[in-house]
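Worked example 3. Consider a protein that binds zinc ion.
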Amino acid sequence: MTLNNFIYKVSKPLGGLQVARFLARNHPRILMYHRISPDGSPGTISVDQFRKQMKLIKRSFNPISLSNLIELHEQGITPKHAVAVTFDDGYSDFAEYAFPILQEEGIPATLFITTGFVNGDVWLWPDKIKFLLSKKSQIKIPSKLDDDIRLEESSISLWKDISNYCLTLDNLVKEAYISDLFSLNDVCLPEYAPEGFEAVGWEQLNRFIEGGSVDIGSHTCTHPVLTRLSLSELRYELMFSKKSIYCNLGVDVSILCYPNGTKFDFNDKVKRELLNSGYKYGVAAYPTLDPLDDVLSVGRYSVDKDLERFTKTIFGISYVAAMFRRSMSSDEY
Ligand SMILES: [Zn+2]
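Given these inputs, the predicted complex is written out as structure tokens:
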């Protein structure tokens, strides 16, 4: 049992959640969401689960937008029990399912959009792999030509394996690899995002920001891993996505969310170019004890559908366990 689980199981009946909430009162929880669906299909959180999570935030915490949280932090103010909701990528299900619930509960959110995706110029490469796997009961992969892989039970783990392999490739090599994967399996690679993988539209985004409860940030133009790009490609992704958001929404964005967002997906060069391109903040995809300590790698908690895990994150059990581990001088998180 992890320390995190131990604290949760032992302390919950004794009011431990409230104790953790108190201990974590100055630790902002910045939450990272991706997709919401009616039935909580793999890779998504169901509408019901999302509603429960938002109600819990509204009832027991202080929902605040990420940009407000950062502004206050820069003035030396840490709002108590702060929770900031963020969404990555810009899928259409944000408009369809997430936004109405956020409105109902009065919770602000930041949406990091991949501008080429919203334009309809590209769709996201991990979705291309998912789409391919949905079309076949068994597939061939280039490195294992003799071995046809049966999918039935293993499509999610195979999707992860192929995606992880793609993350090791330079951007153009990755695109070529995915294209080869489709050819090898006689599946036509759609030029535009097919049903189930579409983006939110610019008009919808305009309506959301007019309401004042949704902030927009950039998630680049095409969602590449930024450390895998040449300098000119990197500058294009940073500058052109910013420009595209300004042209379509009239918003001069200051926050960029790094695609994939692990410690290996951005570096000092990326941070330097981020600032040179007119951004002030960069957002990562992993939690840290002090999420606003470095505003070029703001820490976030990944949210999934498991309510127990969500409760641990939101009440601060995960934070308290990480603090305890650090006091015992092991690694954070
Ligand atoms: Zn993303």
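Take a moment to read the result before moving on. The chain has two domains: 25-120+201-315, 125-184. The chain has a mean pLDDT of 91.
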